[in-house]
């Protein structure tokens, strides 16, 4: 009995010693456990295509107290890693430290070469490294992770904030049992949007471009791209200020696309009807400023004419008819006065006037004096297309029943129907003619906004947009395209939204409509125009 007692006492003492060693000196075991805990779930698109996944990689570490010759180790390692500071490395290896990271995420060839050196006290830890098969294709949505595989932006950060970080801390999140995170993004649509934006930037030598495809019935973001973007496999690229996510972080004056909201407000109020007319024969003077039309007709215009000719004067008079309190309430209902919150942590707060004067009301009516994000604009536009319900946008799958529970009515069904007719008329007869796609009934509104430079509007720098929906009879998808500082495609041509944002939208719809199961229809444009005009009248 005494012998057995001694034996078990020795075993217990050894277990205690090993436990302490694991917490202190035996960093190989601790490091490996930490690497397993840093595993992340795959991110997939709505069709199950992998957008982000973990791959195994090796990281190099040293246990200086076990190194026999620090000078030789530093010299040999510097041959494999020329970027190492040899003198600093020698000093670090000459200490009595228990553990020291030398380099994270080394290549298989570097691991082989270090292994062949056979240096005591030098080892490897297997870690998880995030890999994005599509490179920059979905970069601003996915975000990025740091060297410890922790989400620091985009959906990756959303995943951590939703509980993964707590699981890591508790040691429960391993490679096994992590369900993939499914997004509402369709990779095919995403690729098409990004491709067409790249083409547009080259064709119009533009500074930047944004494209959003939104399901108007569920609020799901099906595709969203902001160029220039970055490769999340090279996270340092995301630090470039020109590569920010302009779709959600950037806030801009959206120009005449805001006339869509002003027109909807006026019609929904009952103070204005489709067959009403407003005098646009001369500029509007207000608070010492003069409001002009870009291509004035210099006559009275009906509401449809104000819309398709994009009359600033007519739109301003409709806003004045409604008044400032109604305008503020209406834009608030559309989510245009508050920061838009989605799964992406990156969001820009709208810029609105400190004092909402009559002049502010007039300029805001046609998209100046207020700055919002493109995604906010898209969500507000979708509410006018889907029958009148504002549905918060999401990057996660959502069915129509859930969307209905989250929605709120912002305009009457009749107002939504009228806006669809006006949008269609604008593509058939107005400034959006270049957005027409054979076989698909597209409706939309152009927006050309001069940019503010040194506190003044610059006539030669524009941010153009086209807000559209299809099929316009019963819209399923909204497409918003924004092109920053485009130049004319050919000398002598204007650089307005109708000349660049509209045709870019058409190119996107032409590619994505078949992917999304929208069947083309054989229609006669002249007959379609006559039918649309008759419906409005």
Structure description:
The protein has 537 residues and is of the alpha+beta class. It has 18 helices and 18 strands. Strands 1, 2, 3, 4 and 7 form a five-stranded mixed β-sheet that branches. Strands 9-8-18-17-16 form a five-stranded antiparallel β-sheet, sandwiched between helices. A hairpin with a 2-residue loop joins β11 (284-286) and β12. α3 crosses α4, α9 crosses α16 and α16 (413-429) runs antiparallel to α18. The radius of gyration is 30 Å and the shape is elongated. The protein starts with a helix and ends with a helix.
Topology readout:
Elements (H helix, E strand, L loop, with lengths): L1 H22 L3 H11 L5 E2 L5 E13 L7 H11 L5 H8 L6 E7 L1 H10 L4 E10 L7 H4 L1 E2 L5 E3 H17 L10 E2 L4 H17 L4 E8 L5 E7 L30 H12 L7 E3 L4 E3 L2 E3 L8 E3 H6 L3 H11 L1 H10 L24 H8 L8 H12 L3 E2 L9 H7 L1 E2 L3 H17 L13 E11 L2 E15 L6 E8 L12 H19 L9 H12 L1
Q: Quick gist of this model?
A:
The protein has 537 residues and is of the alpha+beta class. The chain is built from 18 helices and 18 strands. The strands form six sheets. Strands 1, 2, 3, 4 and 7 form a five-stranded mixed β-sheet that branches. A five-stranded antiparallel β-sheet has the order 9-8-18-17-16, sandwiched between helices. The chain has a two-stranded antiparallel sheet with strand order 5-6.
N-end to C-end Cα span: 105 Å
Radius of gyration (CA) equals 30 Å
Report the uncertain regions: 21-37
Major sheet description? 5 strands, mixed
Q: Oligomeric status of the shown chains?
A: single chain
Category by helix and strand content: alpha+beta
């Amino acid at each position: 009995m005494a012998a057995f007692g001694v034996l078990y006492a020795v075993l217990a003492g050894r277990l205690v010693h090993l436990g302490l060693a694991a917490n202190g000196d035996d960093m190989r075991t601790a490091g490996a456990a930490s690497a397993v805990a840093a595993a992340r779930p795959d991110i997939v698109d709505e069709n199950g295509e992998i957008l982000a996944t973990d791959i195994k990689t090796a990281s190099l570490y040293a246990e200086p107290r076990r190194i026999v010759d620090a000078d030789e180790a530093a010299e040999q390692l510097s041959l494999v890693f020329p970027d190492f500071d040899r003198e600093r490395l020698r000093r670090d290896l000459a200490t009595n430290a228990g553990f020291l990271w030398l380099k994270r995420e080394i290549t298989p060839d570097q691991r082989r070469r270090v292994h062949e050196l056979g240096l005591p006290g030098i080892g490897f830890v297997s870690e998880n490294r995030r890999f994005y098969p599509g490179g920059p294709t979905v970069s601003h949505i996915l975000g990025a992770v740091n060297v410890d595989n922790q989400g620091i932006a985009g959906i990756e950060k959303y995943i951590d904030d939703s509980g993964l970080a707590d699981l890591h801390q508790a040691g429960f999140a391993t490679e096994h049992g992590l369900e993939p995170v499914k997004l509402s993004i369709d990779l095919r649509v995403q690729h098409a949007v990004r491709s067409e934006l790249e083409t547009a930037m080259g064709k119009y030598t533009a500074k930047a471009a944004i494209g959003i495809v939104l399901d108007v019935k569920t609020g799901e973001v099906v595709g969203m791209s902001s160029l220039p973007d970055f490769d999340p496999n090279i996270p340092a690229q995301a630090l470039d200020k020109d590569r920010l996510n302009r779709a959600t972080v950037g806030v801009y004056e959206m120009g005449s696309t805001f006339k869509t909201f002003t027109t909807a407000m006026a019609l929904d109020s009952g103070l204005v009807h489709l067959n009403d007319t407003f005098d646009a024969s001369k500029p509007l003077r207000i608070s010492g400023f003069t409001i002009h039309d870009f291509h004035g007709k210099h006559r009275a215009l009906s509401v449809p004419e104000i819309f398709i000719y994009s009359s600033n004067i007519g739109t301003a008079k409709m806003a004045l008819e409604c008044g400032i309190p109604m305008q503020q309430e209406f834009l608030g209902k559309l989510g245009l006065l508050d920061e838009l919150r989605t799964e992406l942590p990156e969001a820009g707060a709208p810029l609105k006037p400190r004092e909402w004067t009559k002049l502010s009301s007039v300029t805001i009516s046609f998209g100046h004096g207020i700055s919002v994000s493109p995604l906010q604009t898209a969500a507000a536009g979708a509410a006018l297309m889907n029958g009148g319900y504002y549905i918060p946008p999401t990057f996660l799958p959502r069915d129509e029943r859930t969307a209905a529970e989250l929605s709120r009515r912002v305009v009457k069904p009749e107002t939504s129907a009228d806006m669809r007719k006006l949008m269609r008329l604008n593509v058939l007869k107005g400034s959006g003619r270049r957005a027409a796609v054979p076989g698909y009934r597209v409706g939309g509104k152009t927006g050309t906004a001069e940019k503010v430079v040194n506190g003044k509007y610059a006539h030669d720098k524009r941010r153009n947009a086209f807000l559209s929906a299809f099929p316009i009879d019963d819209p399923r998808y909204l497409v918003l395209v924004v092109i920053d500082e485009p130049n004319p495609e050919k000398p002598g041509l204007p650089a307005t939204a109708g000349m660049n944002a509209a045709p870019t939208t058409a190119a996107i719809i032409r590619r994505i409509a078949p992917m999304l199961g929208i069947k083309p229809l054989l229609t006669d444009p002249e007959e379609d125009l006559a039918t649309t005009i008759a419906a409005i009248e």
